[in-house]
Amino acid sequence: MNLHIIALFKFNENYLMDAVELFQNLVKETRKEEGCLQYDLIEDKDNKGTFFLIELWESVEHHNRHNGQDHLLNFRKDASKIMESSAEVYKGFKIY
After folding, report:
1. Which CATH code is given to the segment(s) 3-93?
2. Residue 27: predicted pLDDT
3. How far apart are CA 90 and CA 16, in angstroms?
């Protein structure tokens, strides 16, 4: 069963270019992973510095493998230094 994820990130406005650079590498590398069906970065149109990752994984197991990838671990380490708050992550399965 496909796993849908929406992850919300809020970055300090002084670090927006840094955040985008971190995201670009993360998205580029994640899209190469087996089981990654969608991995898109969206910037909130009304709230500067607020980003969403829209993810679709072939299975929970594929996403679990993603969680151990160096590019994700490096993103988490580097992004945590410039984020306003912790990321919010929502995971679920399509109902209809």
Report:
1. 3.30.70.100
2. 98
3. 23
